[in-house]
Each structure stands twice: as structure tokens, then as C-alpha cells.
Amino acid sequence: MMELKRCQERALKSVESKAAAAEPHARKKAARILREAAYDVMSADDLCAAVLARSRVTLNFHPDRLIAGGLTVAEGLLRDGEYRSQFETRISSGGLSAYPGGDRDRWERSLFAGAYQAEGAEPCDRPKYGALNVMRYADGASPRFGSCHFRLKAGVLDRCTFTCGDSHAQPEHAGTRKVFMPVLAALLEEVRTTGSALASDVPGAGAFAARCLSAAEPDGKDGLPGPGASGGIGRALDAYVEAQIHGAIRLESDVAALVADPSFQGTATGAQLDALSEAYGIPLYWHPGFRLAAGSVPEDFRGPVMPPLARRVVSSYGTEGASPDAFDAAAIGRAAASLHRQPESWADFGTPDEVLQYLKQLWHVLVRYG
């Protein structure tokens, strides 16, 4: 485990302390739910250990978005060899509120007991956000935030904190690798009451437990098979176990694999991903990807502006050689680059900030229906 700064150690310990206090009750709840489901394959503790042993954190990102200086995210990663937080990059595929007094700053103050607001804490010390890919989905645990993802090595789990749901909602259940039971119990309770968790519909807690274990059969390569071997596409826009990674994320030492959207194959972004893979010795895989006809975009998911926006993206930025009326991740990326370079050409859709938000939402539509 890498040496953490004092603020990062404090953040980890604050979550672990709260999780430890909640653990006895969570263990009883998990055991009761499994017992009611007639699941007798293993105990709640053994299930908890098995889930963590078979799961990895994924960091979803859009490689073609532009950062300061006109570089793409992929070019920035290639240059720096490090995955940085929103407090440093000032870009986001969610809300952009990473500044003192902003929403993210307030969420982190609450979750980590003010560790990152303490004297001496710097923006580069802040946690990076991903999700625990319990179901080993090929599109990552949280595709809402990007078309590609890094799969981190098992050792990174030691410096992660986890919440059952996105931290912006200040979820009640949190944990660490040492004390994960409160998170597992919350997932089992969600399955018991709703029949679904982590974007997976299951008939009960026993089936959910079996699904967790079958999603990632170890094959000797970082304990997990390559993308596509199992897991399938998850489309997990909202249902995930968020992971907050404390300390630096260095591509050469912390990343086990890069999994990319196939729409970037044969493009400049694809070449940048190839270069990233080669430079840092990271295996590059391609997941199945998403494509959607503009005419299939609904008006009741992310709002009525989505269908005309999809038609604009297809007509102006559609992928050459693809279905003439369909768009994909690369097409949305080209539209986002156009917005950055020629914002006036998008005035009929709103201000640059509004259009940027619409393009993020169009990506959600593609993940949901593509």
C-alpha cells in the first residue's frame, strides 16, 4: 500500500470507524436476509470476503473530452501518467462543483470528517471517484461517467472507501475493504425490497449472491478474466457502489487494464488509447459499445431536447461507415469538441453550459437505450 498523506489517512480512518460501529448490526441483517432467502452456500462474512476478492474498482472516463491547453483527456493521461481528480482537472462527466465551498467540497467534508479541509491538505490530495465493479460489467461499474474505463489492481482496494450509492446523496451506508459488511447488507436489503441492485434484476437475495460470485471467475490475471468473458453490459447509470480512492492513481503501477468503447477504433482517440496502453504497459480491451438511431431517442428520458440533439449529432458528427442515422460515443465526443471550439454554432440549443449538460445527458440516453 502506498504511503498516504495525513489527510488521506484521516479520511480512511473516519469512514472505517463509522463502518466498524455499524458492522455488528449489518452482519445480523445480512445473515437474516440470506437465511430468509434459503441461501446456505456460505455465511454472510464469507460472502462479503468473496465479493471483495472478485471485485475491482473501475474509473469510467471520456477519453476524447478536452482539458486545459486543448489536450484530450487521453493525451493528458499519456503525458502525466496519473489519473487526477476534478479538483485538479476542472472537468467532469457529472456535476462540476469541486472548489472550496462547492457541493463536492461539502459532501467530502461530511463523508470524511473534514479531513480534506484540514490545514495542509491540497487539491491534489483529494480522492478520485470510481465504482466497485461487483457484477464485472464490461462497460464498467459506472458508465454514466464515461465510455471507457480503467480497471484498477486489487491492491488499490486497501485505500478505498465505499458508499452504497453516489456520495452526493450522502448515503447512510459506507465501508472500507476491512469493514465492507454495511455496504453488502445495504445491497442485500435493496434486493429484498425492490428485486434489483447494481442494475441487475434478480428474484431474491440468494440469486443476487450467486450473481455476484459468478460474475467474475478468477483466471490468474489479476484474479479476473478479460472484459467480454462474463458480466455483459450493465448500463448502470445510477445503481453502483461508489469508490473513493485515496492517494495517487498512477497508470504504471495501479491500473490493470484499459477497457474502451469500440467507436474509437481507427480514430485519433483510438491511437491515443493505443499509445497509453503501450507507454504504461496496460492491456487494452474493447467492450461491445453502444449505438442508437436518432429516431429511437425517447422524449421522456432526459427531456424533449434529446431527439433533436441526437439528430444534430448524427447529421454533423456521425461516425463514417456506421449506420447513417445512428450515433455513438465518438460522435458525441466530436460534438463536445465542436462546442468547445465553436460554441456559437450551438446557439440554437442554448448556452455553452446548457449544451454541455445536454450532451452529457445524450450519453446517458445512449447507455440506457443503445
UniProtKB/TrEMBL annotation:
Top-level taxon in the UniProt lineage: Bacteria
Pfam families noted in UniProt: DUF3626
InterPro entries to which the protein is assigned, alphabetical: DUF3626
Name this polypeptide is given: DUF3626 domain-containing protein
Organism: Paenibacillus chitinolyticus
